[in-house]
């Protein structure tokens, strides 16, 4: 059985999402989640997650958040409206190297500090909301902060596993293109990454998520990571994020009776893999 990280993104974006993810963690339906630290109420959410994850060995990580219709922790990343930039704006600024490196570094530091304050320890892994952590400028800040604050954490490499691509999969291939060289850069800092990635698909489409999940799990290698976005829709989620109904769909599959069949058919064990810590991270 290959060992795969099945990671739920966006913990703490809303109570409904957090409660759903915590339940999946407690029931050992997933073995990782990534936490957003930019919202009020993180302390109680962190305690609830720790309670749910007790004795499960689940990886609890930092979901670096630099995009979205919500306020950052520092002033430098805020637009005049007070919110973070939308992904297209951040992407253009990063690719053109016009993104303010000091402002990015300060926000990343603040989010690491917020995680430490809430959980009393560094994150087990680090990734990014909308995969911003692999972009130029942001990548440098995230790798440097991880090496300082969480040297034993693994970083999420979003280079898609070939077998986990879904047809032409423009979205997955584009995400992978932005991640070019990310694992190499992480290794130079003494950090490790997952070995293959899956889970990207068009959330706006009408998909059979059970079939998609099986495809992603079967397609990643041992040490690979599959991202999911389960949750229950509530008013805070609707106000903060356009991804709503599909979270309910994913949650239904992950907690449903077909879950075990999906894992067995893919030859997957939800045991966290040993990603091979380097001497610098030991």
Pick out its properties.
alpha/beta, two-stranded parallel sheet, 282 residues, TIM Barrel, eight-stranded parallel sheet
What number of domains? 1
% residues in beta strands: 5-15%
The fold-level CATH name is: TIM Barrel
The radius of gyration over CA amounts to: 17 Å
Structural class by secondary-structure content: alpha/beta
Helicity range of the residues? 40-55%
- Tell me the name of the CATH homologous superfamily: Glycoside hydrolase/deacetylase
Q: Give the number of helices.
A: 11
Which runs of at least 5 residues are low in confidence (pLDDT < 50)?
A: 278-282
User: What is the second-level CATH architecture?
Assistant: Alpha-Beta Barrel
CATH class categorisation:
Alpha Beta
Shape: globular
Number of strands: 10
Written as H for each helix and E for each strand, in order along the chain, the element string is EEHEHEHHEHEHHEEHEHHHE
Largest beta-sheet details: 8 strands, parallel
Would you write up a description of this structure?
The protein has eleven helices and ten strands. With 282 residues, the chain is α/β, with parallel strands linked by helices. The strands form two sheets. The protein has an eight-stranded parallel β-sheet, with helices on one face. Strands 1-10 form a two-stranded parallel ribbon. Helix 2 packs across helix 4 (101-119), helix 4 runs parallel beside helix 5 and helix 8 (209-219) runs parallel beside helix 11. The longest helix is centred in the middle third of the chain and has 19 residues, at 101-119. Residues 278-282 have low confidence and may be disordered. It has one domain (2-281): Alpha-Beta Barrel (TIM Barrel), CATH 3.20.20. Helices cover 41% and strands 12% of the residues. The chain has helices at 15-26, 42-53, 87-95, 101-119, 138-149, 170-178, 182-188, 209-219, 235-240, 245-255, 259-266, and strands spanning 2-3, 5-11, 32-35, 59-64, 125-128, 154-155, 192-193, 197-198, 225-228, 268-269. Helix 2 links the parallel strand 3 and strand 4 (59-64).
């Amino acid at each position: 059985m290959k060992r795969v990280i099945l990671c739920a993104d966006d913990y703490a974006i809303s109570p409904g999402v957090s409660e759903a993810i915590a339940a999946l963690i407690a029931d050992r339906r997933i073995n990782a989640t990534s936490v957003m630290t930019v919202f009020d109420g993180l302390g109680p959410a962190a305690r609830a997650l720790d309670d749910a994850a007790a004795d499960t060995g689940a990886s609890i990580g930092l979901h670096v958040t630099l995009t979205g219709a919500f306020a950052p922790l520092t002033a430098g990343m805020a637009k005049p409206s007070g919110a973070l930039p939308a992904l297209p704006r951040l992407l253009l600024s990063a690719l053109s190297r016009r993104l303010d490196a000091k402002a990015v570094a300060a926000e990343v530091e603040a989010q690491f500090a917020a995680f430490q304050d809430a959980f009393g320890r560094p994150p087990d892994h680090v990734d990014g909301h909308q995969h911003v952590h692999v972009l130029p400028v942001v990548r440098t800040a995230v790798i440097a902060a991880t090496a300082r604050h969480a040297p034993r954490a693994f970083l999420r490499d979003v280079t898609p596993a070939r077998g986990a691509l879904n047809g032409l999969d423009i979205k997955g291939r584009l995400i992978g293109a932005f991640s070019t060289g990310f694992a190499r850069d992480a290794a130079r800092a003494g950090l490790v990454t997952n070995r293959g990635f899956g889970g990207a698909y068009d959330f706006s489409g009408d998909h059979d998520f059970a079939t998609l999940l099986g495809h992603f799990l079967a397609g990643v290698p041992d040490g690979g990571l599959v991202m999911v976005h389960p949750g229950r829709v509530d008013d805070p989620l609707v106000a903060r994020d356009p991804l709503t109904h599909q979270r309910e769909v994913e949650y239904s599959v992950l907690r449903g009776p077909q879950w075990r069949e999906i894992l067995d058919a893919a030859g997957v064990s939800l045991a966290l893999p040993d990603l091979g810590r380097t001497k610098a991270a030991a």
